[in-house]
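Why run this: before we spend reagent on co-expression, it is cheaper to look at a predicted model of the complex and decide which construct boundaries make sense. The entries below are exactly what would go into the expression plan.
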Amino acid sequence: MTQALKEQTVNKDWVTLCGIQDLVANSGICALVAKPSEQGEQLEKQIAIFSIPDSEEKVFAVDNFDPIGKANVLYRGIVGSNNGEPIVASPLYKQQFSLKTGTCIQEEAEIGAYPARIQDQAIQVYI
Amino acid sequence: MSKQLNVVVVGNGMVGHHFVEQLANLRESAEQVNITVLSAENRLAYDRVHLSEYFAGKTAQDLALTDESTYHDWQIDFRTNAKVTTIDRQQQQITTEVGETFSYDKLILATGSYPFVPPIPGGDQSHCLVYRTIDDLESIKSSASSSKVGVVIGGGLLGLEAANALKELGLQTHVVEFAPQLMAVQVDTGGGRLLKSKIEELGVQVHTSKATQVIEKGESCRYRLVFADGETLETDLVLFSAGIRPYDNLGRENDLVLGERGGIVINSQCQTSDENIYAIGECALYENMIYGLVAPGYSMAKVAAKHVLDSTSETVFEGADMSTKLKLMGVDVGSIGDAHAKTQGALTYTYENQPEGVYKKIVVSSDKTLLLGAVLVGDTSEYDSLLQYMLNAIELPESPEALILPMAADKPMLGADALPNTATICSCLNVTKGDIVAAVDGGACSVADVKSCTKASTGCGGCAALLKDVVDKELESRGVEVKKDICEHFAYSRRELFDIVKVEKITSFEQLIEKHGHGLGCEICKPTVGSILASVWNDYILDSNKVPLQDTNDTFLANMQKDGTYSVVPRIPGGEITPDKLITIGEVAKKYSLYTKITGGQRIDLFGARVDQLPDIWQELVDAGLETGHAYGKSVRTVKSCVGSTWCRYGVQDSVGMAIDIENRYKGVRAPHKVKFAVSGCTRECAEAQSKDFGVIATDKGWNLYVCGNGGMKPRHADLFATDLDDETLIKYIDRIFSFYIQTGDRLQRTSVWMENLEGGLEYLQKVIIDDHLGICDELEKQMASIVGKYQCEWKTTLENPESLKRFRQFVNSDKTDSNIQFVTERDQIRPATLAEKKAGELGGNIEIVDLTSNESPSESSKQAVAVMED
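The model came back. Tokens follow.
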């Protein structure tokens, strides 16, 4: 698994974070992305990855940090939809975040949302 | 009308635009009234109330209230960059900066206000800015990009909003206020004090009672503020937010009557001293008052628009309520009416809870019958109710303090029924209950309909709950069935879903949503269905198709706490525990450095377990013979007991034995809400059974059963259901009642509310359960027997199943732990570090962040705690 961390570069790229066997259907898991910043410091970021087999996209990736509850918990939220938009509800205070855009539906808040895909049994996120 | 009326509007802020909108709607045609709008800014009207969202990523376009094509459609003649310089009142003509002239029959001044910049030497340097327009925000953004520290001068409402903006831009932020407290206009000293500490907790430093005397060159930063007391503060950026002044120069230069301290004087039709010139919004002075809020400005716009068209219009502006409710940097603040108790003879009630950060005050008339004002900081849940009391002069309850005290049992609920038709429901758009009733009479049959025809709740949205209440009540009173759909995905109530699941033998969410719902589900319907499936089939709740349905507590079989860690609660049936088990719990707590506390329900809570530690912790507990306590589920929690006849001098039955039997029988049973039991060994009631869903009290002939009580937010004493029962009958009755509740209760409905909603109440329940009036008792007992027969310790099952442990990893690709989880010690145990403590820890402050990564006990690890801070 440390392999995945090494492959990453400063530039945005498709990064392999785990395999499809790690996914939990209709639910979330969390991966750690380590990237050197432009200043060369090592930055770590937690990414929540959601598997929704019934959706067009199948997998989604957003920040794991809940900006309202201020804790790294979003991967533990319930996934669902709001007016057709795939969402995750924060397990802390239940605000819904769009899995496509990262926008919070109930309050002024936003999280990062990243393109995600399944490539040869691997889950890749563009980050 | 034969002649075309020429109306010229100077100013295109929120109020100016609202006037245009009103007038364009009211006029019969563009031929009847020609509207010209002149905006000094280079863009048309935008939403200034939500200006700070510009920093959160909103664009000028997102904030726009209108656009050129809309004005074209409305046939409005408009100019941007068109600053008006002169008014010729004789000729009824105005001239702009570039020399363009316009004739008017009616002139509307909606020029607004400008930020006041105190005359501080050095205050005119390039990084000294104000916060008013989109252009200002652009300047702030560009200055912030080369700044580290920012100061807002002025701790009023706008100042705090500006401070939030600086903070969001990543600056180390300070607020400097001349007065001894923040938001002196809206809140009192106590509220200001609490507000200050809450805002400081968020990392913004607040300096009150500070008068800035000069802004000079700084040493570590670009500037240095020197205060009257000699202290200094270094900063790269200064933002002035010291109040607003009416933009009244057009009135001043053209001999309209002004107030002593500025503002164009208007009458209740919003006319100035020249009857053909109106002033509205923040440039206008009505009865010596400038209204610096948008709602009164909108009212003025409405009044002026009507009067311009019809000089006999009876709509008048009579001042406006300045009550406000807002969230400043995440801190709830509410101010109603006479917040400072300035009314003669006014009396106050204050409630302050420093640990929780809550401050509430109400101001009442000398005879305690009317509410005059209120201040709420930290919790504004009573704002709507209090506002209705004040606006409608509703008589206060006998003990007005009940309105703000937490857990006051007799807190009067000010429901839709209590409000008169004149009650304002939506104060932003001035919609009364009468308007809503009229809309329902006119055929509106949903909240959405009422919203679209009255515009209620389309402003700040703070009245949404009350609006729904009023609409529902009105619809119900007309015999319209109000939808009880649990959410957008299912057009059914919980009870209906329960019946569907049972009758159609549905065993998964997928089956149910495919046949009877749509979409992907949500955090409301999924756990509800999860609970129903558990109640009907009682399968293992972490089966792969049920994992996605569970709230975090159920998924992780533990309770999530504020920092994302969990608490662990082993079951201790009846509160009886062997020393060996007690030692195991203690050893586990010590090994994993968990905070330990005895709960209110006679159990032991272990806090601070990271998600990845839960399986290890539980493995040890399960190995020692302990079971999950289901403290996380909407399920049976504790059965509290006293020691009963075995030890107690007074006990008449074995209450511990009964409590253990009950707990073991119903443990793990899922219900619409959590369910608690208690058994007391005599009428002294040491187990407090009458505050529980099911309370059992021993008599010398058997057991008395009490039902549907609860503690918590709205306590209710349980009702005596049956007396002197033998053991067998007691269990039979509980089986039946519990089963009946599980099948018919609404989502998250407690037994107390469930019974209150049963038509016929207690008597009906007795008929159903004791007399088997509906002939369903057999079925109820069977259902309960099938659930209790399938009990399993969910932790034990989970530990045996590697697939279900997947989600207990913090990261799928790393063994690291979540670095955001940090603890400090308090009273010899850990607790979550506050944001400020975490920040201080990062900066190398004198805060001891406990390092638990190597699972050492706090006492050892605090020795390796981090660093020291200079000050």
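The two ends of chain B are 76 Å apart (CA to CA). Chain B has six domains: 5-112+247-309, 115-242, 321-414, 416-483, 494-550, 634-796. Bring this page to Monday's planning discussion.
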